Amino acid sequence: MPTIDELRILQALPLDIKIMKTQQRIREWVDYYGVNGVCVSFSGGKDSTVLLHLVRELYPNVEAVFVNTGLEYPEIQQFAKSFENVTVLRPAMRFDEVIRKYGYPIIGKEVAERIYNARKCVESGGIKYVEHFWQITKQIPIKAQQLMGVKGDRFTKKYDFSMWQPLLNVDFGISSLCCREMKKKPLKRQDKKSFVATMTEESFLRRTSWLKTGCNAFNTGVSKPMSFWTEQDVLAYIKAYNVPIASVYGEVVYKHDGGEYTETLCDCGGKLCTTGCKRTGCIFCGFGAHLEKGEGRFERLKRTHPRQYEYCMEGGCYDTDGLWKPTKEGLGMRHVFEEVNKIYGKNFIRY
User: Fold this and answer.
1) pLDDT above 90 for 58
2) Core vs surface per residue 247-271: b (16+ CB within 10 A) or e
3) Per-position DSSP letters for 231-242, written without gaps between them
């Protein structure tokens, strides 16, 4: 199994060496499954655009698969469909249906997963709310224990999720299952083994996954050949190879610490960035929104795509089970953010 030290060495390599190593991972995957047995999971975002460019430089006829969840920026959808040999898939459930069944995606996948599982424990009687305190009444899964702050052999500060315990009391569901329903399940309906553009620097979960399998997970049928790349590597590749990206990103430029754009790194000593969106993904997703500095994703959505913003924030009502859920008028996320901000402070999530 790879180690964290090996990952850090890979992440520190210059871009040209990273490209060579990624190309080798791609060749190994195609050698194993054949050109007709693989595809590129293509979201239309800048990371997967770089991955598609890398794969098709070696194998021009590899299929790209775009899962049209309806959660992408309109510019992303148009951009993804502009490529040749792109198969468009759709999920079996709409996003509002996923929320109604499982809950809203907020804070982060790890937190949402633990909230969802802990609420299952509440339903089964393993956790009870007594005199303004949550009490554990029987053995519960380790992830639920981490949310409750239980100390034990497998408990460290890194796995202390107890600050999110108040979310057990909110009047809406919370879950991380939207990605499974909207993205992973449609891809599994086909027989091909996917290349995906996820990178370990993006989350603890992705780093943990890489440490188990490395880039090519032959046991799961998913290749992540850019796992050891960074955001700066992706932007540098786009700039060096003149790779077209969706218009919602704007241009890739060097940014001075003071916010002024310039053309050369040596003049400003800054880092590469985009003049538009930094990241795209699902435009209604609340994961990581509380961590954003500067203009938040929902503030930007309000400015650039007011119709989508209105659908995201408006609507919603209490269902027969007493939980707040989307309605045909909208997802009702304004209420969700208001309730979270009551717990963690004004503007914890900016919208």
Assistant:
1) yes
2) ebbeebbbbeeeeeeeeeeeebebe
3) HHHHHHHHHHTT
Q: How confident is the model at residue 269 (pLDDT cuts 50, 70, 90)?
A: very low
Unique residue bearing structure tokens 């997967």: 48
What is the model's pTM? 0.84
Interatomic CA distance for residues 40 and 302, integer angstroms: 32
How far apart CA 309 and CA 314 sit, in angstroms, is 8
pLDDT tens column, 154-201: 556 677 898 999 999 999 999 999 999 998 888 888 889 999 999 999
Decide if 91 contacts 183 (C-beta within 8 A).
yes
- Helices 204-213, 4-11: axis angle to 10 degrees equals 110
Mean pLDDT of the chain: 90
Q: What is the mean pLDDT of residues 92-115?
A: 95
- The fourth-level CATH superfamily of domain 4-95+178-229 is HUPs (3.40.50.620)
Instruction: Give the start-to-end residue ranges of the domains of the chain.
Output: 4-95+178-229, 109-169, 286-344
SS3 labels along 143-177: HHHHHHCCCCCCCCHHHCCHHHHHHHHCCECECCC
Task: Give the integer Cα–Cα distance in Å for 110 and 112.
Answer: 6
- Determine the Cα–Cα distance for residues 235 and 277; give it in Å rounded to an integer: 13
- How is residue 104 annotated by DSSP? B
CB contact set of 150 (below 8 Å; sequence gap of 6+)? 136
194 φ, ψ to 5°? -90, 145
